[in-house]
């Protein structure tokens, strides 16, 4: 089938059901092309994308610099495995460390794998340095990905209950409650593991002082602080990394979503104290491949050249005003990570109304609507978004 020939939507949906495991909950929209802030369906209709592939497409869709790098690197070398040295990986690791904090980097393919790596770091660190301490304190409502350890660390029972027995050593506490962390800390505690803003959990930022307090507690008790910046990292919150708002540094940080601008890649940064993995301890066949790393380098370059981090902070304030103007409950968020609540459980119906109005958002639960647009969003885009989000309220 050629690129401009598509099965009728209903027929296509049947095919999807027949051949694809039904793990996803799709919105009723088939997208076939993207450009900048917009996605297009098979009928050529245009949608203003406030989701960016779930906080991934920071430069929008098919950014020319990303496409150019993909083409250039694909002709040079796509994959060679970790058996040999490759250059893009080293350059990317260096760039990430320069942007973040003194550390070294492990490169992998997805947020869950990055978090799995962070969990293994905490386990080994506890074994080596804390008399076998292995417990990891994480938050109810948190999301860390879908591997077995990641769903266990995550704070949503619905994602783990079918997969028991779960790996031991994960203790959950309410988010934004330092006293709760203190209460469960003991000799077996190896790490505290948090998102700086609950993302999938409905865009709930850390309360002022929370991360500072957790950092201080971890220092006092000599336990690692792991921050999952898979969603918040790389400009999303109006700083390169969300922990910078709190003026603290984690011991381990995980990144993924935005890093490849749409191409799968993830990273784990560990400060010298937590840099415990040695040859043979861990690995990834695809991790750090030249294609993914070249694209990530380009994404970081464009973000810097176009000052997209500062831009995200400015546009984030405008998006907040637009969300407030909808007149619903609890308009909130940070940078270009925003949400509001409906009093009634109509978020999923609203999401579909938004498609009809040509704007894409996401219901994280029955009441909550989230937006994580590309960082290239303009003031004009936000005005259009506001009109369409309002129109969807009326229908
Ligand atoms: C999306 C997400 C993950 C999981 O990333 P995958 O690439 O889907 O494995 C982990 N943590 C956070 C905070 C996320 O938003």
Topology:
Elements: H1 9-19, E1 31-35, E2 38-41, E3 46-49, H2 52-55, H3 64-76, H4 87-99, E4 104-108, H5 111-129, E5 135-139, H6 148-153, E6 170-173, H7 178-184, E7 189-194, E8 197-198, E9 204-205, H8 210-221, E10 224-228, E11 252-255, E12 266-270, H9 290-305, H10 308-324, E13 329-334, E14 337-341, H11 347-357, E15 359-360, E16 362-363, E17 368-371, H12 379-394
Parallel strand pairs: 3-15, 5-6, 5-7, 7-10, 10-11
Antiparallel strand pairs: 1-2, 2-3, 4-12, 8-9, 11-12, 13-14, 14-17, 16-17
The structure holds pyridoxal-5'-phosphate.
Polypeptide structure, described:
There is one protein chain. This protein is an alpha/beta fold. The protein is 37% helix and 18% strand. The chain contains twelve helices and 17 strands. It has helices at residues 9-19, 52-55, 64-76, 87-99, 111-129, 148-153, 178-184, 210-221, 290-305, 308-324, 347-357, 379-394; strands spanning 31-35, 38-41, 46-49, 104-108, 135-139, 170-173, 189-194, 197-198, 204-205, 224-228, 252-255, 266-270, 329-334, 337-341, 359-360, 362-363, 368-371. The strands form four sheets. Strands 4-12-11-10-7-5-6 form a seven-stranded mixed beta sheet, sandwiched between helices. Strands 1-2-3-15 form a four-stranded mixed beta sheet. The chain is globular. It starts with 8 loop residues before the first helix and ends with a helix. The chain binds pyridoxal-5'-phosphate. The site of pyridoxal-5'-phosphate has 15 residues, from helix 5.
């Amino acid at each position: 089938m050629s690129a401009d020939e598509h099965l009728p939507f209903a027929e296509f949906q049947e095919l999807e059901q027949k051949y694809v495991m039904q793990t996803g909950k799709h919105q009723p929209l088939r997208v076939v092309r993207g450009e900048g802030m917009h996605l297009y369906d098979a009928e050529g209709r245009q949608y203003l994308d406030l989701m960016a592939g779930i906080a991934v497409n920071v430069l929008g869709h098919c950014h020319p610099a990303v496409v150019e790098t993909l083409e250039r690197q694909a002709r040079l070398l796509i994959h060679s495995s970790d058996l040999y040295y490759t250059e893009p990986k080293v350059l990317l690791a260096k760039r990430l460390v320069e942007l973040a904090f003194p550390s070294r980097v492990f490169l992998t393919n997805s947020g869950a794998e990055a978090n799995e790596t962070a969990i293994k770091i905490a386990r080994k660190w506890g074994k080596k340095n804390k008399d076998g301490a292995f417990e990891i304190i994480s938050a109810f409502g948190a999301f860390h990905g879908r591997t077995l350890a990641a769903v266990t660390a995550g704070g949503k029972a619905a994602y783990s209950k079918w997969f028991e027995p779960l790996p031991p050593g994960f203790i959950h506490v309410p988010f934004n409650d330092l006293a709760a962390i203190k209460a469960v800390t003991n000799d077996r505690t190896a790490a505290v593991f948090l998102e700086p803003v609950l993302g999938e959990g409905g865009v709930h930022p850390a309360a002022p002082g929370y991360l500072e307090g957790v950092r201080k507690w971890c220092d006092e008790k000599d336990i690692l602080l792991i921050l999952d910046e898979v969603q918040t990292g790389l400009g999303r919150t109006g700083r390169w990394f969300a922990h910078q708002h709190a003026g603290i540094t984690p011991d381990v940080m995980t990144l993924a979503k935005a890093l490849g601008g749409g191409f799968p890649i993830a990273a784990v940064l560990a400060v010298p104290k937590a840099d415990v993995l040695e040859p043979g301890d861990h690995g990834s066949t695809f991790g750090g491949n030249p294609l993914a790393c070249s694209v990530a380098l380009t994404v970081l370059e464009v973000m810097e050249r176009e000052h997209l981090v500062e831009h995200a902070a400015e546009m984030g304030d405008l998006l907040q005003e637009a969300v407030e103007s909808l007149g619903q409950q609890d308009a909130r968020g940070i940078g270009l990570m925003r949400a509001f609540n409906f009093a009634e459980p109509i978020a999923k119906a609203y999401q579909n109304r938004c498609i009809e109005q040509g704007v894409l958002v996401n219901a994280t639960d029955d009441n909550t609507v989230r937006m994580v647009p590309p960082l290239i969003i303009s003031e004009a885009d936000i005005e259009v978004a506001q009109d369409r989000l309002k129109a969807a309220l009326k229908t």
